Amino acid sequence: MTPPLFVTSDETLLDELLRLAAAAGATPEVAEAGTALRSWTAAPLVLVGADAAEETARLGPHRRAGVHVVSWGPVPHELFRTALALGAESVTELPRSDTWLTETLTDLGDDAPARSLVVGVVGGSGGAGATTFACALGQVAARTGHAVVVDCDPLGPGVDRVLGLESHDGFRWDALCQTTGRLSGRALREALPRRGRLGVLSWYSGTAGSLQAFAVREALSAARRGHDVVVVDLPRSTAPLVEEVVARCDLVVVVVQPTVAGVASTARLVPRLGTGPQLRLVVRGSGLDPRAVARATGVPVLAEMSDQRGLAEAIDLGLGPVRSPRGRLGRAAADVLAQVSVMGRAA
Ligand SMILES: Nc1ncnc2c1ncn2[C@@H]1O[C@H](COP(=O)(O)OP(=O)(O)O)[C@@H](O)[C@H]1O
Ligand SMILES: [Mg+2]
Question: How far is Cα 164 from Cα 158, in angstroms, rounded to an integer?
Protein backbone atom coordinates (compact mmCIF):
# COMPACT_ATOMS: atom_id res chain seq x y z
CA MET A 1 0.00 0.00 0.00
CA THR A 2 1.22 3.52 -0.77
CA PRO A 3 2.01 5.17 2.58
CA PRO A 4 0.31 8.35 3.81
CA LEU A 5 2.44 11.48 3.49
CA PHE A 6 3.31 13.66 6.50
CA VAL A 7 4.82 17.02 5.64
CA THR A 8 6.44 18.71 8.63
CA SER A 9 9.72 19.66 10.25
CA ASP A 10 8.16 20.26 13.64
CA GLU A 11 9.49 17.52 15.89
CA THR A 12 6.79 17.73 18.52
CA LEU A 13 4.08 17.47 15.90
CA LEU A 14 5.89 14.70 14.07
CA ASP A 15 6.28 12.66 17.28
CA GLU A 16 2.57 12.89 17.86
CA LEU A 17 1.71 12.02 14.25
CA LEU A 18 4.02 9.02 14.29
CA ARG A 19 2.52 7.83 17.55
CA LEU A 20 -0.99 8.01 16.07
CA ALA A 21 0.15 6.33 12.86
CA ALA A 22 1.67 3.47 14.88
CA ALA A 23 -1.62 3.07 16.75
CA ALA A 24 -3.41 2.88 13.40
CA GLY A 25 -0.92 0.41 11.94
CA ALA A 26 0.21 2.87 9.25
CA THR A 27 3.80 3.60 8.23
CA PRO A 28 3.95 7.09 6.75
CA GLU A 29 6.44 8.76 4.48
CA VAL A 30 7.78 11.89 6.13
CA ALA A 31 8.89 14.85 4.00
CA GLU A 32 9.83 18.48 4.47
CA ALA A 33 7.95 21.13 2.57
CA GLY A 34 10.64 21.27 -0.13
CA THR A 35 10.28 17.59 -1.05
CA ALA A 36 6.58 17.18 -0.33
CA LEU A 37 5.41 17.26 -3.92
CA ARG A 38 7.15 14.04 -4.96
CA SER A 39 4.57 11.85 -3.27
CA TRP A 40 1.78 14.42 -3.17
CA THR A 41 -0.48 12.79 -5.74
CA ALA A 42 0.18 9.13 -4.99
CA ALA A 43 -0.27 9.24 -1.21
CA PRO A 44 -3.72 8.11 -0.04
CA LEU A 45 -3.72 10.84 2.62
CA VAL A 46 -1.58 13.97 3.08
CA LEU A 47 -1.13 15.65 6.46
CA VAL A 48 0.62 19.00 6.25
CA GLY A 49 1.98 20.40 9.50
CA ALA A 50 1.15 24.01 10.38
CA ASP A 51 4.90 24.75 10.20
CA ALA A 52 5.15 23.56 6.58
CA ALA A 53 1.77 24.68 5.24
CA GLU A 54 2.80 28.08 3.91
CA GLU A 55 5.89 26.83 2.11
CA THR A 56 4.03 23.85 0.65
CA ALA A 57 1.21 26.08 -0.56
CA ARG A 58 3.74 28.31 -2.29
CA LEU A 59 4.90 25.32 -4.37
CA GLY A 60 1.38 25.23 -5.85
CA PRO A 61 0.62 21.56 -5.31
CA HIS A 62 -1.95 19.78 -7.43
CA ARG A 63 -5.50 19.94 -5.97
CA ARG A 64 -6.49 16.58 -4.54
CA ALA A 65 -8.81 15.06 -1.96
CA GLY A 66 -7.52 13.83 1.38
CA VAL A 67 -5.28 16.77 2.32
CA HIS A 68 -5.49 17.99 5.92
CA VAL A 69 -3.53 20.65 7.75
CA VAL A 70 -2.62 19.66 11.31
CA SER A 71 -1.37 21.88 14.06
CA TRP A 72 0.03 21.01 17.45
CA GLY A 73 -2.08 23.07 19.82
CA PRO A 74 -4.48 25.87 18.91
CA VAL A 75 -4.85 26.69 15.24
CA PRO A 76 -3.56 30.17 14.37
CA HIS A 77 -6.12 32.10 12.36
CA GLU A 78 -3.93 32.65 9.27
CA LEU A 79 -3.64 28.90 8.89
CA PHE A 80 -7.15 28.70 7.45
CA ARG A 81 -6.20 30.87 4.51
CA THR A 82 -3.11 28.76 3.85
CA ALA A 83 -5.21 25.61 4.13
CA LEU A 84 -7.57 27.01 1.55
CA ALA A 85 -4.68 27.68 -0.79
CA LEU A 86 -3.58 24.06 -0.33
CA GLY A 87 -7.05 22.76 -1.10
CA ALA A 88 -7.12 21.10 2.32
CA GLU A 89 -10.32 19.45 3.53
CA SER A 90 -9.77 20.46 7.13
CA VAL A 91 -7.56 22.21 9.63
CA THR A 92 -7.13 20.00 12.64
CA GLU A 93 -5.77 20.65 16.07
CA LEU A 94 -3.88 17.97 17.97
CA PRO A 95 -4.07 16.44 20.51
CA ARG A 96 -7.75 17.36 20.50
CA SER A 97 -8.48 15.50 17.27
CA ASP A 98 -6.28 12.48 18.00
CA THR A 99 -9.21 10.07 17.77
CA TRP A 100 -10.35 11.35 14.41
CA LEU A 101 -6.83 11.21 13.04
CA THR A 102 -6.27 7.67 14.28
CA GLU A 103 -9.54 6.60 12.65
CA THR A 104 -8.65 8.32 9.41
CA LEU A 105 -5.27 6.59 9.40
CA THR A 106 -6.93 3.29 10.27
CA ASP A 107 -9.20 3.74 7.26
CA LEU A 108 -6.12 3.54 5.07
CA GLY A 109 -5.66 -0.04 6.23
CA ASP A 110 -6.14 -3.08 4.05
CA ASP A 111 -9.88 -3.17 3.88
CA ALA A 112 -10.33 0.43 2.88
CA PRO A 113 -11.21 0.58 -0.82
CA ALA A 114 -8.48 1.87 -3.09
CA ARG A 115 -10.85 4.08 -4.98
CA SER A 116 -14.50 4.23 -4.19
CA LEU A 117 -17.17 5.41 -6.57
CA VAL A 118 -19.94 7.80 -5.65
CA VAL A 119 -22.88 7.46 -8.02
CA GLY A 120 -25.84 9.80 -7.70
CA VAL A 121 -29.21 8.76 -9.11
CA VAL A 122 -31.92 11.27 -9.91
CA GLY A 123 -35.22 10.99 -11.75
CA GLY A 124 -35.48 13.04 -14.93
CA SER A 125 -39.15 13.40 -14.03
CA GLY A 126 -41.19 12.44 -10.97
CA GLY A 127 -41.69 8.68 -10.57
CA ALA A 128 -39.14 7.86 -13.27
CA GLY A 129 -37.66 5.07 -11.17
CA ALA A 130 -34.63 6.75 -9.56
CA THR A 131 -35.05 5.34 -6.06
CA THR A 132 -35.67 1.88 -7.47
CA PHE A 133 -32.57 2.08 -9.66
CA ALA A 134 -30.43 3.49 -6.81
CA CYS A 135 -31.40 0.52 -4.65
CA ALA A 136 -30.77 -1.89 -7.52
CA LEU A 137 -27.27 -0.43 -8.00
CA GLY A 138 -26.60 -0.92 -4.27
CA GLN A 139 -27.76 -4.53 -4.36
CA VAL A 140 -25.64 -5.38 -7.38
CA ALA A 141 -22.56 -3.50 -6.13
CA ALA A 142 -22.76 -5.38 -2.81
CA ARG A 143 -22.14 -8.66 -4.62
CA THR A 144 -18.52 -7.70 -5.14
CA GLY A 145 -17.73 -5.15 -2.42
CA HIS A 146 -19.03 -2.93 0.32
CA ALA A 147 -21.89 -0.75 -0.90
CA VAL A 148 -24.22 1.75 0.68
CA VAL A 149 -27.34 3.50 -0.54
CA VAL A 150 -27.63 6.99 0.92
CA ASP A 151 -31.12 8.44 0.95
CA CYS A 152 -31.03 12.15 0.24
CA ASP A 153 -34.70 12.43 -0.70
CA PRO A 154 -36.79 13.27 2.37
CA LEU A 155 -39.97 12.88 0.34
CA GLY A 156 -39.10 9.50 -1.14
CA PRO A 157 -40.32 6.10 0.06
CA GLY A 158 -37.16 5.47 2.12
CA VAL A 159 -34.37 3.36 0.64
CA ASP A 160 -34.36 1.17 3.76
CA ARG A 161 -37.98 0.27 3.04
CA VAL A 162 -37.33 -0.40 -0.63
CA LEU A 163 -34.46 -2.70 0.34
CA GLY A 164 -36.33 -4.46 3.15
CA LEU A 165 -34.06 -3.01 5.86
CA GLU A 166 -36.54 -0.73 7.58
CA SER A 167 -36.75 -2.85 10.72
CA HIS A 168 -32.98 -3.44 10.99
CA ASP A 169 -31.15 -1.71 13.81
CA GLY A 170 -28.53 0.88 13.04
CA PHE A 171 -27.79 4.51 12.45
CA ARG A 172 -30.29 6.73 10.70
CA TRP A 173 -29.79 10.35 9.69
CA ASP A 174 -30.95 11.60 13.09
CA ALA A 175 -28.08 9.77 14.84
CA LEU A 176 -25.63 11.35 12.43
CA CYS A 177 -27.10 14.78 13.05
CA GLN A 178 -26.27 14.31 16.73
CA THR A 179 -22.66 13.21 16.33
CA THR A 180 -20.19 16.03 16.49
CA GLY A 181 -16.86 14.35 15.87
CA ARG A 182 -15.65 12.94 12.60
CA LEU A 183 -16.62 9.42 11.70
CA SER A 184 -14.25 6.85 10.33
CA GLY A 185 -15.36 5.01 7.23
CA ARG A 186 -15.40 1.72 9.06
CA ALA A 187 -17.33 3.12 12.03
CA LEU A 188 -20.08 4.37 9.73
CA ARG A 189 -20.18 1.15 7.75
CA GLU A 190 -20.55 -0.93 10.89
CA ALA A 191 -23.19 1.36 12.39
CA LEU A 192 -25.62 1.32 9.44
CA PRO A 193 -28.54 -1.08 9.01
CA ARG A 194 -27.26 -3.68 6.60
CA ARG A 195 -27.68 -7.01 4.92
CA GLY A 196 -24.44 -8.68 3.91
CA ARG A 197 -22.26 -6.02 2.31
CA LEU A 198 -25.13 -3.63 1.59
CA GLY A 199 -25.87 -0.80 4.02
CA VAL A 200 -28.44 1.99 3.97
CA LEU A 201 -28.55 5.47 5.38
CA SER A 202 -32.07 6.82 5.62
CA TRP A 203 -34.66 8.28 7.98
CA TYR A 204 -36.86 6.35 10.37
CA SER A 205 -40.05 5.61 8.51
CA GLY A 206 -42.91 7.82 9.56
CA THR A 207 -40.60 10.66 10.61
CA ALA A 208 -40.35 13.94 8.75
CA GLY A 209 -36.92 13.78 7.20
CA SER A 210 -34.67 16.71 6.48
CA LEU A 211 -31.09 17.03 5.31
CA GLN A 212 -28.56 18.84 7.46
CA ALA A 213 -25.46 20.13 5.79
CA PHE A 214 -23.02 18.98 8.46
CA ALA A 215 -24.43 15.45 8.65
CA VAL A 216 -24.57 15.10 4.87
CA ARG A 217 -20.95 16.15 4.43
CA GLU A 218 -19.70 13.86 7.18
CA ALA A 219 -21.79 10.94 6.00
CA LEU A 220 -20.71 11.20 2.37
CA SER A 221 -17.08 11.53 3.22
CA ALA A 222 -17.15 8.60 5.69
CA ALA A 223 -19.29 6.54 3.29
CA ARG A 224 -16.73 7.08 0.54
CA ARG A 225 -13.89 6.01 2.82
CA GLY A 226 -15.70 2.92 4.06
CA HIS A 227 -17.31 1.54 0.91
CA ASP A 228 -16.37 0.57 -2.62
CA VAL A 229 -19.57 1.99 -4.05
CA VAL A 230 -21.72 4.77 -2.59
CA VAL A 231 -25.08 5.27 -4.30
CA VAL A 232 -26.93 8.48 -3.50
CA ASP A 233 -30.67 8.66 -4.09
CA LEU A 234 -31.02 12.33 -5.04
CA PRO A 235 -34.21 14.38 -4.80
CA ARG A 236 -35.42 16.42 -7.74
CA SER A 237 -34.56 19.66 -6.01
CA THR A 238 -32.48 22.73 -6.63
CA ALA A 239 -31.65 23.34 -2.96
CA PRO A 240 -28.01 24.42 -2.49
CA LEU A 241 -27.25 21.39 -0.32
CA VAL A 242 -28.49 19.06 -3.05
CA GLU A 243 -26.28 20.87 -5.57
CA GLU A 244 -23.36 20.30 -3.22
CA VAL A 245 -24.16 16.59 -2.97
CA VAL A 246 -24.39 16.36 -6.75
CA ALA A 247 -20.98 18.02 -7.03
CA ARG A 248 -19.52 15.35 -4.77
CA CYS A 249 -20.64 12.54 -7.07
CA ASP A 250 -18.26 11.02 -9.61
CA LEU A 251 -21.19 10.29 -11.85
CA VAL A 252 -24.88 11.11 -11.84
CA VAL A 253 -27.29 8.70 -13.48
CA VAL A 254 -30.50 10.35 -14.65
CA VAL A 255 -33.33 7.85 -14.94
CA VAL A 256 -35.57 8.97 -17.75
CA GLN A 257 -38.85 7.68 -19.11
CA PRO A 258 -38.78 7.95 -22.90
CA THR A 259 -41.99 9.93 -23.20
CA VAL A 260 -42.44 13.51 -24.38
CA ALA A 261 -43.15 14.65 -20.82
CA GLY A 262 -40.30 12.57 -19.34
CA VAL A 263 -37.80 14.01 -21.82
CA ALA A 264 -39.07 17.57 -21.36
CA SER A 265 -38.60 17.39 -17.57
CA THR A 266 -35.19 15.79 -17.97
CA ALA A 267 -34.07 18.53 -20.34
CA ARG A 268 -34.97 21.08 -17.67
CA LEU A 269 -33.18 19.20 -14.92
CA VAL A 270 -29.91 18.51 -16.71
CA PRO A 271 -28.50 22.09 -16.77
CA ARG A 272 -29.07 22.29 -13.03
CA LEU A 273 -26.81 19.34 -12.32
CA GLY A 274 -23.77 21.47 -12.98
CA THR A 275 -20.54 20.63 -14.68
CA GLY A 276 -18.98 18.68 -11.79
CA PRO A 277 -20.00 15.07 -12.23
CA GLN A 278 -20.30 13.15 -15.46
CA LEU A 279 -23.93 12.69 -16.46
CA ARG A 280 -25.44 9.59 -18.06
CA LEU A 281 -28.98 8.49 -18.83
CA VAL A 282 -30.67 5.25 -17.95
CA VAL A 283 -33.78 4.95 -20.09
CA ARG A 284 -36.58 3.06 -18.35
CA GLY A 285 -39.52 1.61 -20.24
CA SER A 286 -40.48 1.91 -23.88
CA GLY A 287 -41.38 4.89 -26.00
CA LEU A 288 -39.13 7.29 -27.86
CA ASP A 289 -35.91 6.06 -29.40
CA PRO A 290 -33.10 6.35 -26.80
CA ARG A 291 -30.95 8.15 -29.37
CA ALA A 292 -33.61 10.83 -29.65
CA VAL A 293 -33.73 11.07 -25.85
CA ALA A 294 -29.96 11.55 -25.75
CA ARG A 295 -30.14 14.22 -28.44
CA ALA A 296 -32.96 16.11 -26.75
CA THR A 297 -31.27 16.14 -23.35
CA GLY A 298 -27.65 16.40 -24.46
CA VAL A 299 -26.71 13.48 -22.20
CA PRO A 300 -25.39 10.11 -23.44
CA VAL A 301 -27.34 6.95 -22.69
CA LEU A 302 -25.56 4.42 -20.47
CA ALA A 303 -28.26 1.75 -20.37
CA GLU A 304 -31.79 0.98 -21.46
CA MET A 305 -34.15 -1.30 -19.63
CA SER A 306 -37.72 -2.44 -19.95
CA ASP A 307 -39.94 -2.38 -16.90
CA GLN A 308 -39.14 -4.98 -14.28
CA ARG A 309 -41.90 -7.50 -13.73
CA GLY A 310 -42.87 -8.37 -10.16
CA LEU A 311 -41.16 -5.29 -8.76
CA ALA A 312 -43.80 -4.35 -6.20
CA GLU A 313 -43.97 -7.93 -4.99
CA ALA A 314 -40.20 -8.25 -4.54
CA ILE A 315 -40.16 -5.00 -2.54
CA ASP A 316 -43.14 -6.08 -0.42
CA LEU A 317 -41.32 -9.31 0.37
CA GLY A 318 -38.35 -7.28 1.64
CA LEU A 319 -36.07 -8.58 -1.11
CA GLY A 320 -35.25 -5.23 -2.68
CA PRO A 321 -35.90 -4.44 -6.35
CA VAL A 322 -33.31 -6.93 -7.64
CA ARG A 323 -34.77 -10.32 -6.95
CA SER A 324 -32.74 -12.13 -9.55
CA PRO A 325 -29.45 -11.07 -11.15
CA ARG A 326 -30.92 -12.10 -14.50
CA GLY A 327 -33.89 -9.75 -14.18
CA ARG A 328 -34.01 -6.53 -16.18
CA LEU A 329 -33.11 -4.26 -13.30
CA GLY A 330 -30.29 -6.53 -12.13
CA ARG A 331 -28.76 -6.68 -15.58
CA ALA A 332 -29.10 -2.94 -16.19
CA ALA A 333 -27.54 -2.14 -12.80
CA ALA A 334 -24.65 -4.56 -13.44
CA ASP A 335 -24.14 -3.04 -16.86
CA VAL A 336 -24.06 0.49 -15.46
CA LEU A 337 -21.62 -0.44 -12.68
CA ALA A 338 -19.29 -2.16 -15.12
CA GLN A 339 -19.20 0.87 -17.41
CA VAL A 340 -18.92 3.31 -14.54
CA SER A 341 -15.96 1.55 -13.02
CA VAL A 342 -14.18 1.73 -16.37
CA MET A 343 -15.05 5.45 -16.61
CA GLY A 344 -13.84 5.92 -13.03
CA ARG A 345 -10.51 4.30 -13.76
CA ALA A 346 -10.03 6.37 -16.88
CA ALA A 347 -10.77 9.61 -14.98
N1 LIG B 1 -37.43 -0.56 -13.32
C2 LIG B 1 -38.75 -0.46 -13.07
N3 LIG B 1 -39.63 -1.32 -13.61
C4 LIG B 1 -40.94 -1.21 -13.36
N5 LIG B 1 -41.49 -0.28 -12.57
C6 LIG B 1 -40.67 0.62 -12.00
C7 LIG B 1 -39.26 0.58 -12.21
N8 LIG B 1 -38.71 1.59 -11.52
C9 LIG B 1 -39.71 2.22 -10.92
N10 LIG B 1 -40.90 1.65 -11.19
C11 LIG B 1 -42.23 2.08 -10.73
O12 LIG B 1 -42.28 3.47 -10.64
C13 LIG B 1 -42.64 3.89 -9.33
C14 LIG B 1 -41.75 5.06 -8.91
O15 LIG B 1 -40.44 4.57 -8.75
P16 LIG B 1 -39.35 5.31 -7.88
O17 LIG B 1 -38.13 4.48 -7.99
O18 LIG B 1 -39.87 5.60 -6.53
O19 LIG B 1 -39.21 6.64 -8.74
P20 LIG B 1 -38.51 8.04 -8.39
O21 LIG B 1 -37.54 7.80 -7.29
O22 LIG B 1 -37.88 8.45 -9.66
O23 LIG B 1 -39.62 8.95 -8.00
C24 LIG B 1 -42.45 2.67 -8.44
O25 LIG B 1 -43.43 2.58 -7.48
C26 LIG B 1 -42.55 1.51 -9.39
O27 LIG B 1 -43.87 1.04 -9.43
MG1 LIG C 1 -37.28 8.68 -5.46
Answer: 10
* Dist. CA 36 → ligand 2 center (Å): 45
pLDDT for the residue 181? 60
Is 174 part of any domain?
yes
Say what the pLDDT of residue 298 is. Answer: 96
Q: How far is the CA of 331 from the centre of ligand 2 (A)?
A: 20
286 and 339 inside one domain: yes
Helix 11-24 with 98-107: angle, nearest 10 deg: 50
Q: What is the domain range of residue 32?
A: 5-107
Which H or E run includes 49?
strand 46-49
Domain for residue 149, yes or no?
Answer: yes
Whole-number pLDDT of residue 346: 53
Q: How far apart are CA 29 and CA 341, in angstroms?
A: 29
Q: Which atom of ligand 1 is nearest to the CA of 122?
A: 22
Pair (219, 89) in one structural domain: no
Nearest alpha carbon to residue 111 among 194, 3, 227, 230: 227
For ligand 1, is residue 302 a contact (CB within 6 Å)?
no
Query: Going by CA atoms, what residue is nearest to atom 7 of ligand 1?
Result: 129
Quick one: pLDDT at residue 344? 62
Residue 121 Cβ inside 6 Å of ligand 1? The answer reads no
Task: Enumerate residue ranges in the chain where pLDDT < 70.
Answer: 109-114, 179-182, 344-347
- Is 51 domain-assigned? yes
**Which residues are bridge partners to 231 per DSSP?**
119, 149
Do both 195 and 281 map to the same domain?
yes
Task: Give the pLDDT score at 255.
Answer: 98
pLDDT at 175: 85
Q: Is residue 112 part of a domain?
A: no
Domain count, the chain: 2
pLDDT in tens, 256-266: 999 999 999 99
CATH number at residue 41: 3.40.50.360
Between the CA of 320 and the centroid of ligand 2 the distance, in Å, is 14
